[in-house]
Automatic annotation (TrEMBL):
Its main location: nucleus. Keywords: Chromatin regulator, Nucleus, Transcription, Transcription regulation. It is found in: Nucleus. One of its GO terms (cellular component) is nucleus. It comes from Rhodosorus marinus. Residues 14-79 form the MSL3 chromodomain-like domain. This is MRG domain-containing protein. One of its GO terms (biological process) is chromatin organization. InterPro entries: Chromo-like_dom_sf, MRG, MRG_C_sf, MRG_dom, MSL3_chromo-like. Residues 124-279 form the MRG domain. Signal peptide: none annotated.
Length: 293
């Protein structure tokens, strides 16, 4: 066991394997002390965030650690509510002025819904976007992982939405078909994803993770840099309905559908590289939080 200086100069003991809270930005995160180390006569602690990949482990000073007590649990909930409430207010506000020009009038706040993706949503005849059976299976698996198995896409994703779109453009460039329209649509899709993720692309079970990652950071985080092809595909299947609501003319719709079909083919061809075969269990603490919402 190691004694270290707390925030007010008091001696606080932390030991390897102990469950603690770590302050980061405006939130507290559950973590485990991996080991302690002394550098320049100062004790530091290597911690592992519970439910996160090892690459997010970090070494912190004692003033960022709190004992896992009922008091700190309540503080964590209070801080989370302060983060979530403003974000929900933003979600309820009109996002139209923030959307790319091509999608300016789109306004859909219903989310992806908690039901299994409908046949009409997956039908090429209904959507004008042809999805290979593997992509349809991906959408169903995605729904089951999150809503039935209580699993989450581990974040940040690699490749991210931004990286997937850039790779798609590079692939088209090598094939000699990366025209100006393709680049504009890719950029518009990226911008739209950043705006739309929190309002229409998440299952309820994913919202706490979203608020922790996107709104819980001290620096601005773009969803397209953090989320991956799993959530991008959700947007692609919603585009036909969104374009109709946006009153996009037939000629422009035809162009967008053409590019989206090409992107869908790219996702199918590179599915093993861009989609996760399995999601990560959310953990008991996370599941408990969602029940409190």
């Amino acid at each position: 066991m190691t004694a270290a200086e707390g925030k007010e100069g008091t001696k606080i003991d932390f030991e390897a394997g102990e469950k603690v809270f770590v302050s980061h930005g405006n939130l507290l995160y559950e973590a485990k002390v991996v080991h302690t180390e002394v550098k320049n006569s100062e004790t530091r602690f290597k911690i592992h965030y519970l439910g996160w990949k090892d690459k997010w482990d970090e070494v912190v000073k004692a003033d960022r650690l709190s004992k896992f007590t009922e008091e700190s649990v309540q503080l964590k909930k209070s801080l989370l509510r302060k983060i979530i409430s403003p974000s929900r207010a933003r979600d309820r506000s009109d996002p139209d002025m923030s959307l790319p020009a091509k999608m300016r009038k789109v306004n859909d706040r219903k989310g992806v819904g908690e039901g299994i993706p409908s046949a009409s949503a997956l039908s090429s005849e209904q959507s004008s976007i042809v999805l290979h059976s593997t992509l349809k299976r991906q959408l169903v698996d995605d729904w089951e992982f999150v809503t039935k198995d209580h699993k989450l896409v581990p974040l940040p994703r690699d490749p991210s939405v931004s990286a997937v779109l850039s790779t798609w453009l590079l692939s088209n460039s090598r094939r000699g078909i990366a025209d100006k329209a393709c680049k504009e649509i890719a950029e518009g899709l990226r911008e739209y994803f950043d705006i739309a993720l929190g309002t229409m692309l998440l299952y309820k079970f994913e919202r706490i993770q979203y608020n922790q990652v996107i709104h819980g950071s001290e620096v601005a985080v773009k969803p397209s840099k953090v989320y991956g092809a799993e959530h991008l595909l959700r947007l692609i299947v919603k585009l036909p309905t969104l374009l109709v609501k946006a009153r996009v003319n037939d000629e422009k719709q035809t162009l967008i559908f053409s590019k989206m079909n090409d992107l869908a083919k790219f996702l199918h061809k590179n599915g093993k590289l861009v989609f996760l075969p399995e999601y990560s269990p959310a953990g008991e603490d996370y599941i408990a939080k969602t029940c409190e919402e």
